[in-house]
Amino acid sequence: MSQPVPEQVGLLEGLRSTPSRRYLSDTPIPDDLLWELLDTAIRGPSGGNRQRWAWLVVTDPSVKTRIADWYRQGWDAAYGVRREELSDPGRSGVDTGLTPSSYRATEYLAQHLGEAPVFVVPVLRDAADSTDKRLGSSIYGAVQQLLLAARAHGIGGVLTSLYLGAEDRVDALLGLPDDAATMGLVPLGYPARGRWSQPRRRPVEEVVHWERWGETRTRD
Amino acid sequence: MSQPVPEQVGLLEGLRSTPSRRYLSDTPIPDDLLWELLDTAIRGPSGGNRQRWAWLVVTDPSVKTRIADWYRQGWDAAYGVRREELSDPGRSGVDTGLTPSSYRATEYLAQHLGEAPVFVVPVLRDAADSTDKRLGSSIYGAVQQLLLAARAHGIGGVLTSLYLGAEDRVDALLGLPDDAATMGLVPLGYPARGRWSQPRRRPVEEVVHWERWGETRTRD
Q1: What are the backbone angles phi and psi of residue A94, rounded to the nearest 5°?
Q2: Considering only residues 130 to 169 of chain A, which have any Cβ-Cβ distance to chain B shorter than 8 Å?
Q3: pLDDT per position as a tens digit, A157-216
Q4: What is the 3-state secondary structure (H, E, C) of chain B?
Q5: Which residue of B has its CA nearest to A118?
Q6: Nearest to A11 among B10, B46, B134 (CB)
Q7: What chain A residue is nearest to B14 in terms of C-alpha separation?
Q8: Which of A132, B15, B32, B118 has its CB surrounded by the most CB atoms within 10 Å?
Q9: B38 in contact with A at a CB cutoff of 8 Å?
């Protein structure tokens, strides 16, 4: 297992080379390292410093397995039914944004989620009945901090939501209070394959508008 | 203006020392640097790589001034009415999470927002009528990437929402399509005071639950 020395990764380098990692080995992550990742996550933004969040860490194989079963069902319903179409190597991926190789990675994760040594579940209080589309403005920044801190230690992960078809069962399994809501699921693990490459995106010129909507510019 | 050499900031160091910065000078940010910050932001997560986002950059003083006026009104309504109470140096800040010094910084920003050289407005398409509390799962991670990339270049900012009392007027001013929604407002600028210190948070042991809600542990 090659783990880069954390301080060797520069901030800008890390920001540009932390793709979602879905091929995760079952190598355990030490507890003291998990504490450090979580302590770094909560240095992310918190509107009004209210910190109405909680972070559930799941390492128990029986709990992970149950969630992984529900996750696979969610994946089957959302993507599995489109396997032939989405995994076709001749497809460009432009239509959904999901390339054939990212489809295969997503399929792998759906079939192996329970092998990831750790699930982190970010939770918000007073959120169960919320219809506020901006509710996650703080916690998703903190989740990104978690993924970037993990990357500094050679650990990969991805924020995913395909367990939500079984949201009530997940909430019950984890013992969530009635007012709380899970905001996602983050499997973490040492990558079994792949690399820290720059995520492919549409050119920045296409998504940046200057002064007013529709006013795009060429980047010199 | 002292600007650290970007690559000198390590990833973990940056993640632990990027507080919201609200005292921003009016020193301009070069366009090529803005492009780089935005290009780094969009390397953040994008669920299914759909990238249903856009990034509005506002530097026009007349547009900034109008938004700043609405912002100040929003701040007055939310916090200004509680000035005497919230700015009392004898108050602990435990009740709202907002310490007296962070109250003063928030007040400063409300009174000087228009002086920040750049506003970045993250936008989501197909979002205007959304009631999905998890809608921001990708874009807020990208906003955190923006703030961290800015920090690597010595530029500060904060994700704020106090303009939302005038949301319709802001949307019209920026020419937003009907289906789109602003997900926040990020003023950026070189800090006029303050420093890159670690944000103060509740101890991590209080917000982390192991295996099941309510099962807290002591960090050794």
Answers
A1: -65, -30
A2: 130-145, 147-149, 151-152, 158-159, 161
A3: 999 999 999 999 999 999 999 999 999 999 999 999 999 999 888 999 999 999 999 999
A4: CCCCCHHHCEHHHHHCCCCCCCCECCCCCCHHHHHHHHHHHCCCCCHHHCCCEEEEEECCHHHHHHHHHHHHHHHHHHCHHHHHHHCCCCCCCCCCCCCHHHHHHHHHHHHHHHHCCEEEEEEECCCCCCCCCCHHHCHHHHHHHHHHHHHHCCCEECCECCCHHHHHHHHHHHCCCCCCEECCEEEEECECCCCCCCCCCCCHHHHEEECCCCCCCCCC
A5: B211
A6: B10
A7: A11
A8: B15
A9: yes
Which chain B residue has its CA at the smallest distance from A96's CA? B50
The answer to whether A39 contacts chain B (CB < 8 Å) is yes
Do B148 and B95 form a contact (C-beta atoms < 8 A)?
A: no
Residues of chain B with Cβ-Cβ distance to A7 below 8 Å are: 10, 12-13
In a domain, A73, yes or no: yes
- State the pTM of this model: 0.94
| Binary contact (A207, B51; C-beta < 8 A) | yes
Beta-carbon count within 10 A of A176 CB:
24
Total structural domains in chain B? 1
Angle in degrees, 0-180, between the axes of helices B139-152 and A139-152, rounded to the nearest 10: 60
In tens, the pLDDT along B178-196 reads 999 999 999 999 999 999 9
Domain containing B98 — which CATH number? 3.40.109.10
- Whether A126 is covered by a domain: the verdict is yes
Q: Please check whether residue A95 touches B, CB under 8 A.
A: no
Residue A56 lies in a domain: yes
Residue A24: which domain range? 9-207
The answer to whether residue B214 neighbours chain A at the CB level (below 8 Å) is: yes
Residues in a beta bridge with A120: A57, A186
Task: Specify the amino acid at residue A35.
Answer: W
Higher pLDDT, residue B37 or A95:
B37
Token pair 């092998």 is at which residue? A115
The tens digit of pLDDT for each residue in A60-119 reads 999 999 999 999 999 999 887 777 777 776 665 555 667 888 889 999 999 999 999 999
CB contact under 8 A, B99 and A49: yes
Is B12 a domain residue? no
